Structure formats: structure tokens, C-alpha cells
């Protein structure tokens, strides 16, 4: 599967963006297409690389018809120039020529009022004023009709204003076009302001790297730095690439990645990730990832690609917009024709009402503000160290009924220490710890590592043979010719060994040798600091909490009680966690179920949940890939923050829908009864769009 990425510089028409996206999706050879109106990027997945140029050319021609002033840049094939006009015309900026046209047209518009001009000269003055401000819109409308793309805002404004001239309403025809162009100017400014706010929120990309070359350093683009190169990061600079600190020590400001203001200490030998800011000391770093694979690059790609997973509300509005405009246009046509023909109505009066409908039939306020709202919410979350992979997951947080937690590393710290050793049948505690350390010598599991640390002696691996891990139960190995079993109760029972059961909040490792249970080791893990308050905050929102654990049922239950979690399941193998989650999903099929784990080990359960949240992903590629929402720190409190951002975003999106549809419905109704004017119709179009766009910007702001 090959990719096409086009940047559409100057794209500010949301309706056109929707049409471009649909056209791209329907092309032969295209698997999927997504146009992010916020970042102005069109990403297309194609089935065969050989069709690339043909598909890009087809998309470019369509864009040329819909938005002639948009510049198309092929991001993945910069050698190919798809610039339509050779310049970028960004409607979000105030251009001198636009202002001049509006001012001249406005002056001509008021001349007949000031000098009481009448007759042909009056008509000519208004016509000249109209053509100066509206000729571009008329030309685009004609091109689109000839290309078979009617029902865009250019066509609707052209028909409505020319119609006003035909029925003798010259001032209104000019005024509506003038007001519309002024509104478009403000709308473009509002869109660009919103985009700039989002971009500044995500301004974490490093601009350069200080590459060490011999005895000097050279400023280069981070993409030019290779693995095993050395870079220098001065105080106040962003770390441009992931690597290992080889010289110096400092503290790091990680707030732009994690949302936390507390600095992190860094010294020689520590892993350092890109995007954080070096506070004080000079650091020399050996790069271990290219820029495209670095943490900062993955975070930026994740946030930028979030728009490809649209929220249900966004999908509904997109479909609604496709039907809304044609329906209103046909109603306007019927309104302008049927009463004069069949009910002896006034042609001028009913035509005017029809033109009001045409002006208001563009759904711009909805198709612009809704994506901006969701993207703003995703941007706000990322600033808090919460990476949400799509608007669907952000909106889904509003419907969460149950949160299921993994225990180790999520509810507890995941830092294990041997707290007790018991021995039986003439074995000493030292001998039990030695057997366990030898048995765990090939293991990378945290519990195994804690036993080896507690033993703290050299291990002669020649004494070990026939090493075998038993999935979900423990380890079997021959040590000095004796068969040793280390693990949970199930492992010993499977091998017909009677178990002297122990009760503890810690993890219990039973030690068996030659068919006898000879010792027990207790490895304790502590609850994370503040976990009780975090769980209490979630439960106060009406959330049910459940914990899954591989520990025995009693241990799991005690940990859950300490943390304040409603229910727990213990003695679960990895595959059992999936089964337990599926049972919970069936019990809560009308609501969303979230699973919270600590990364790749929980990948199957994270994938099965309605929404998977991975914890503590700072620098962890696996955790970033494994889940739908990534929390860069180990803080459960971030879940509450994410849900608060989701509620705030949903509220803003709902406000925009009610505002846009409400005002349009009111003006449509008034227009049908001949009360609303075309001026009011223009406000219901571009005026409401500007208000909705500025309202969407509020999604960027959220308090803890």
C-alpha cells in the first residue's frame, strides 16, 4: 500500500474540502482518503504505486476547479510540481487587492444614495460595484457548473445576487455580495487564527540540531543526523533527537510532552527523548534514533493523523451537509416557481424569498467549526500529556461507563522488592533465595529481577539446565540435577506438589524441589502515590472501576480494596484477561468500556477494549503504538483530565451545531414567510460561521 500526501496551501472552504475528500475516495486505485481541514493535508492510500502520478493529477485538476487559488504541494514527492497557479493565495490573510476591491465597491454602492442617482446611471453604478466585488465568485461558479460541480457557495451566491438584479433589487444584490465578501474575509481570518492557535499548542518540533563534527559543532536540520552521531544541546534548547547522554548533567523541562511542570534530572548514561527542553547544563548526546523514528516525530504524526479517525458527530455532519444544500436549493426553486404559476403569487416576491433560501443553503458553519472543535480538543489533551489518536476516541470518552485497570505498573508502581522469605523441610532462607535466584537467572520479568537483586551474588549458570518458562505460571529448571519449580500455586499443583498456601498483598512465589514445597518468597509492590484520590475522582463521575491481575484472587482483592476499586479479578493468565474483558463488554454493551494498561504487555486487552489507554509511555514506542489513547506519564489522574477535555469539546461542538442549525432554521422560516431579508441570510451563513469558528477555539483551553 503506497501513500500520497498533498498539502493544500490556501484552502479555507470547508465545503470544497469535503468535496475534494469524497472525490479522492471515489477514484479508481484509491483505498482511502482523508482531508484534514485544520492542517490542510490530504492523505491518500493507493493500491499500486504505478498509479500515483495519475491519481495526483486527477486530484489536482479537481482542486483547480473547486479552489483555483489553492496551491497543491506533493509532500512525499517534492520533485514533482503540482502548483496550480504558481502562487499561494491564502484567504485567511488580508490582502491589499481584496481590501481595495471591497473599498471601491463600497464607495460605488453608496454613490446613488448620496447623489440621488436614478435611471440607467443608477443601474450602471450598482452593476459596476457588483462586478468589482463579485466577478471572481461568478467566474468560479460558471467553471464549477461546466465541470458538473454545482451547489457550492459560489454558485448559490451568484444565482441569488444576479436574481436580485433581475427582479430590480440592485442595492440588495450588491450589498449581499459585498457583505458576503467581507464575511468571507473575517471567516478566513477566524479559520487561520484557530489553525495558528492549534499549531502553537503543538509547537514542540525542534528547528535544528547541533551536530558534532570533529572539534566543532554545526547547526543542521534534525533529519540530517544519523544514528551514532553526537549532538550537543545547550541550556534553553529543545532536545532534537532521542539518544543517550554521554557527557554532562542537567534537568529537563518535559511540560510540552507530559504537561507536567516538575523538572526531571538527567545524567550520563540516561536515555533522553526528543522534544523536551534542556534547562541548565550542557549535554552531549549519542543519537540512537533517526528523526522520523524519534519520540517527538511519533507524537506529532499521531496528533496530525488524529483527524483520520473522525468522531461520529463529525461523520454525521459531513453526511448531513451533502444532503442539506441540494434539499434547500430545490425548496428554493419550488418556492420561486410554484406560487406564481399555480397560486397567483407575485413573481418578484416569491423569487426574493427563494433567493434568501439560496444564500442560507451553504452549511459552512458546521463543516468548518466541528472539525476545528475536535482537533482543538485533541490539541488541548496533547498539551496535558494525553495523546488521543482520533476524534472518535475523544468523543467516546463522553460515553464511558466502566474503566478496567491492569494492576502491575498501572495501579501499583511496578517496582518489586523481596519483603519476606520462608523456608520449610530443613532448608534455610538463604538456600531458598539461592534456588529462586538461579531459577530466575534467565528471566527479564520484574519479579524475577527483584529476586536476583535480593540474592546479590554471582550466578554460575553452568549449574542450570533444562530451563523452561510455563506461560502464566512460572519457571521450571534443573539446578544441580534437581528439578526446581518457581511460580504460582497452579504451577506446583500441576506437578503434584502439595502447597502450603500463604496470604499476602504482595506477589507470592512458591518454591518446589523434587516434588516438595520447600519455600515461599513474597515480593511486594506498592500502590502508586495518590491512586486512591484518582480512583475516587473517577467514581464521583459515575464510573465503575474494575481491576484485572495475574496475582491470586485474595491478593488482587486486597489491592483493589486499598485503591478503592469496585471489583477485581485475580489468577488471570494473559489470555484470561481478554476473556474477562469480553465478559465486561457484554455486561456494558450500551456504554464504552476503557482498559488501562502499561504498554505492549497488555496489547491484546488494549486492542479488545472500546478504548485502550496505555500509561507511562514517555519514550516508549510500544505503548504509543499499542493503544487508542496514550498517557505520557504514570498518572491515573490524566484519565479524569482527558474526560474533562472530552466533555468540554462535546459541549462546544454541540453549541456550534445548535447555533448554526438554529439560526439557519429561524432565517429559513422567516424567509419562507417573506420576513427575512438577504442581508439576514448572509449573516446566517458567514456570520454564524465566524461565531462558530471562534467558539471552537475554546476547545484548546482546559483547566486541570
From TrEMBL:
Its main location: membrane. The keyword Chloroplast does not apply. Residues 2-71 form the HMA domain. It catalyses: Cd(2+)(in) + ATP + H2O = Cd(2+)(out) + ADP + phosphate + H(+); Zn(2+)(in) + ATP + H2O = Zn(2+)(out) + ADP + phosphate + H(+). The chain crosses the membrane at residues 99-115, 127-149, 155-180, 323-343, 355-381, 657-676. One of its GO terms (molecular function) is P-type cadmium transporter activity. Keywords: ATP-binding, Cadmium, Cell membrane, Magnesium, Membrane, Metal-binding, Nucleotide-binding, Phosphoprotein, Translocase, Transmembrane, Transmembrane helix, Zinc. It is found in: Cell membrane. The keyword Transmembrane applies. It is a multi-pass membrane protein. NCBIfam families: ATPase-IB2_Cd, ATPase-IB_hvy, ATPase_P-type. Belongs to the cation transport ATPase (P-type) (TC 3.A.3) family. Type IB subfamily. This is Cadmium-translocating P-type ATPase. It comes from Wansuia hejianensis. The gene is cadA.
Amino acid at each position: 500500500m503506497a501513500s500520497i500526501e498533498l498539502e493544500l496551501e490556501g484552502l479555507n472552504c470547508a465545503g470544497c474540502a469535503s468535496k475534494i475528500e469524497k472525490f479522492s475516495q471515489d477514484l479508481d486505485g484509491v483505498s482511502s482518503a482523508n482531508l484534514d481541514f485544520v492542517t490542510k493535508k490530504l492523505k491518500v492510500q493507493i493500491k499500486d504505486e504505478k498509479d500515483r502520478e495519475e491519481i495526483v493529477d486527477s486530484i489536482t485538476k479537481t482542486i483547480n476547479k473547486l479552489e483555483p487559488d489553492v496551491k497543491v504541494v506533493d509532500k512525499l514527492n517534492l520533485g514533482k510540481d503540482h502548483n496550480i497557479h504558481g502562487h499561494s493565495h491564502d484567504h485567511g490573510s488580508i490582502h491589499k487587492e481584496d481590501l481595495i476591491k471591497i473599498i471601491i465597491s463600497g464607495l460605488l454602492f453608496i454613490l446613488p444614495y448620496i447623489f440621488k442617482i436614478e435611471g440607467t446611471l443608477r443601474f450602471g453604478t450598482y452593476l459596476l460595484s457588483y462586478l468589482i466585488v463579485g466577478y471572481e465568485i461568478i467566474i468560479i461558479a460558471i467553471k464549477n457548473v461546466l465541470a458538473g460541480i454545482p451547489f457550492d457557495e459560489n454558485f448559490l451566491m451568484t444565482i441569488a445576487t444576479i436574481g436580485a438584479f433581475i427582479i430590480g433589487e440592485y442595492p440588495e444584490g450588491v450589498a449581499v455580495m459585498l457583505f458576503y465578501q467581507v464575511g468571507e474575509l473575517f471567516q478566513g481570518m477566524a479559520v487561520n487564527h484557530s489553525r495558528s492557535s492549534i499549531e502553537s499548542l503543538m509547537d514542540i518540533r525542534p528547528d535544528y540540531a547541533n551536530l558534532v563534527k570533529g572539534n566543532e559543532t554545526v547547526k543542521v536540520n534534525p533529519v540530517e543526523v544519523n544514528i551514532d552521531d553526537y549532538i550537543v544541546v545547550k541550556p534553553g534548547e529543545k532536545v532534537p533527537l532521542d539518544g543517550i547522554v554521554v557527557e554532562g548533567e542537567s534537568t529537563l523541562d518535559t511540560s510540552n510532552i507530559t504537561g507536567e511542570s516538575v523538572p526531571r534530572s538527567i545524567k550520563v548514561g540516561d536515555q533522553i527523548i526528543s522534544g523536551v527542553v534542556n534547562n541548565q547544563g550542557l549535554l552531549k548526546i549519542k543519537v540512537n534514533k533517526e528523526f522520523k523514528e524519534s519520540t517527538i516525530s511519533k507524537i506529532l504524526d499521531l496528533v496530525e493523523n488524529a483527524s483520520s479517525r473522525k468522531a461520529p458527530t463529525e461523520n454525521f455532519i459531513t453526511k448531513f451537509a451533502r444532503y442539506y444544500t441540494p434539499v434547500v436549493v430545490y425548496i428554493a426553486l419550488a418556492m420561486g416557481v410554484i406560487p406564481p404559476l399555480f397560486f397567483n403569487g407575485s413573481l418578484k416576491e416569491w423569487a426574493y424569498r427563494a433567493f434568501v433560501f439560496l444564500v442560507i443553503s451553504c452549511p459552512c458553519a458546521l463543516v468548518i467549526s466541528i472539525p476545528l472543535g475536535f482537533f482543538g480538543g485533541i490539541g488541548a489533551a496533547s498539551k496535558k500529556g494525553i495523546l488521543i489518536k482520533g476524534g472518535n476516541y475523544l468523543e467516546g470518552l463522553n460515553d464511558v461507563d466502566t474503566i478496567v485497570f491492569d494492576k502491575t505498573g498501572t495501579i501499583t508502581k511496578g517496582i518489586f522488592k523481596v519483603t519476606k522469605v520462608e523456608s520449610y523441610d530443613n532448608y534455610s532462607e538463604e538456600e531458598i533465595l539461592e534456588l529462586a535466584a538461579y531459577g530466575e537467572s534467565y528471566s527479564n520479568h520484574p519479579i524475577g529481577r527483584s529476586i536476583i537483586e535480593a540474592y546479590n551474588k554471582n550466578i554460575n549458570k553452568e549449574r542450570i539446565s533444562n530451563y523452561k518458562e510455563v506461560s502464566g505460571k512460572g519457571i521450571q529448571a534443573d539446578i544441580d540435577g534437581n528439578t526446581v519449580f518457581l511460580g504460582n500455586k497452579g504451577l506446583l499443583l500441576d506437578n503434584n506438589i502439595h502447597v502450603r498456601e500463604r496470604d499476602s498483598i504482595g506477589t507470592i512465589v512458591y518454591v518446589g524441589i523434587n516434588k516438595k514445597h520447600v519455600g515461599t518468597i513474597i515480593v511486594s509492590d506498592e500502590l502508586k502515590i495518590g491512586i486512591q484520590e484518582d480512583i475516587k475522582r473517577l467514581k464521583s463521575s459515575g464510573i465503575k472501576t474494575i481491576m484485572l491481575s495475574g496475582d491470586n484472587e485474595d491478593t488482587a482483592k486486597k489491592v483493589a480494596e486499598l485503591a478503592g476499586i469496585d471489583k477485581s479479578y485475580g489468577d488471570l493468565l494473559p489470555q484470561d484477561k481478554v476473556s474477562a474483558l469480553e465478559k465486561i463488554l457484554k455486561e456494558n454493551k450500551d456504554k464504552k468500556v476503557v482498559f488501562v494498561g502499561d504498554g505492549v504487555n497488555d496489547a491484546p486487552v488494549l486492542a479488545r477494549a472500546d478504548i485502550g489507554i496505555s500509561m507511562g509511555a514517555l519514550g516508549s514506542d510500544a505503548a504509543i503504538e499499542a493503544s487508542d489513547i496514550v498517557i505520557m506519564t504514570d498518572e491515573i489522574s490524566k484519565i479524569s483530565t482527558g474526560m474533562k477535555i472530552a466533555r468540554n469539546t462535546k459541549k462546544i461542538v454541540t453549541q456550534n451545531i445548535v447555533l448554526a442549525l438554529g439560526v439557519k432554521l429561524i432565517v429559513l422560516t422567516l424567509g419562507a414567510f417573506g420576513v427575512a431579508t438577504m442581508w439576514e441570510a448572509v449573516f446566517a451563513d458567514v456570520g454564524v460561521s465566524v461565531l462558530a469558528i471562534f467558539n471552537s477555539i475554546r476547545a484548546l483551553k482546559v483547566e486541570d
